[in-house]
Amino acid sequence: MANKVYQKTFTRLEAITKATVSLKAPGVSNDELAVVDGRLAQVVKTKGDLVTLQVFSGTEGIPNNAEAIFLGEPPTLKVSEELAGRFFDAYGHPIDGGPEIEGEARPIGGPSVNPYKRKKPSKIIPTGIAGIDLNNTLVSGQKIPFFADADQPYNIVMAQVALRADVDKIILGGMGLTNDDYLYFKHEFESAGALDKIISFVNTTEQPPVERLLIPDMALAAAEYFAVEKGEKVLVLLTDMTLYADALSIVSNRMDQIPSKDSMPGSLYSDLAKIYEKAVQLPDPNDPTKDAGSITIIAVTTLNDGDITHASPDNTGYITEGQLYLRADPDSGKVIIDPFRSLSRLKQHVQGKKTREDHSQVMNASVRLYSDAANAKTKLENGFDLSDYDLRCLDYAKDYATRILAIDVNISLEEMLDTAWALFAKYFSPAETGIKQALIDKYWKK
User: Fold this and answer.
1) Which of 97, 109, 224, 261 sees the fewest Cβ atoms within 10 Å?
2) Distance between CA 356 and CA 352 in Å, rounded?
3) Which fold has domain 76-349?
4) Which numeric CATH code is attached to 4-70?
5) pLDDT tens string 292-331
6) Do β-strands 322-329 and 33-36 pair in parallel, antiparallel, or remain unpaired?
């Protein structure tokens, strides 16, 4: 809390909406925190001396003569090594029964790193999930979302990525989590003995939706501390960004702003970009040719019946460097990362360069044969006769989905490549794979 000498107090409100109050308060800055009638609020708009405050818990019952105390500072997070292994709310206060953090208070929501000072991402982040590592390889400093229907187990995948990823710190930003989801993350992290490298900021469904707007900035403020000052490789997991966008919409509508597409505020693109552009690979200050810390962002964007044209996924796709698409595979009964609709735009920076030489060829052959299986399935559904090749493709596709694509498969990238070669040899001739002869001579499973 700010020192009282910097606090300003006013007792006359000019206007009250469902989410905001307005009053005349000279010398107040944007994003500054305040307490209105005992409720935490934040400045969201200034016009001359007229200030609009967003009241996080709502304005119901606030009178016109309510006391408004300005705290003289924006939201902050105390940063130190003590953050590791802890769970916090949207304001950075512990919710795990542990003590408050001792450390330097840093403002959240600051600018992203100057593009001139960034380094081209070139380090692989293995996750143990073939739909990512094999087909859509994740690179440090990348920003990429999971697109998933609301009934998909995306939070389970997030927990798996957190526990498998080869990084120094994992930072979870949970927005609108059910209590079951929150307890699931907590149980999984504790059971795996991985709490020492995981930091969680959580807003549950029982808490005001507007508080979700603070979660990404809290998570990224912690990420910047460990990446910039400690030189660590940090992975930030944000779930669910659709609920974040819904919170933006709530505030926008209650402020009587004219909505844009799908009732979202016109600022949605810049609001999302402000978060995703925090992803960065930093160069070593002593040797710019070497890597220092990094922030990689994986976020969940839930879809409404697979609609990727909604404003949230649509804007997200313009900002991020690809997407990972979760879907249920009816043939194998598994949830997989769809090889057709998923894409990592940075994978070429590491495939075959930081991974085994056959990586790109195996990936391309695997997906092409899986595509041939999809064509064979269409022929079958339309009553056409299937060739021997079609039948082999269908058997391959089920095996490929079960042994490689399924999200519950946890193997190394080398094992993924070896498994793919074994499936090629089981169902196809070397010529049918289309892989270069030199690689076939070296890796084909006799």
Assistant:
1) 97
2) 5
3) Rossmann fold (3.40.50)
4) 2.40.30.20
5) 899 999 999 999 888 889 999 999 999 999 999 999 999 8
6) unpaired
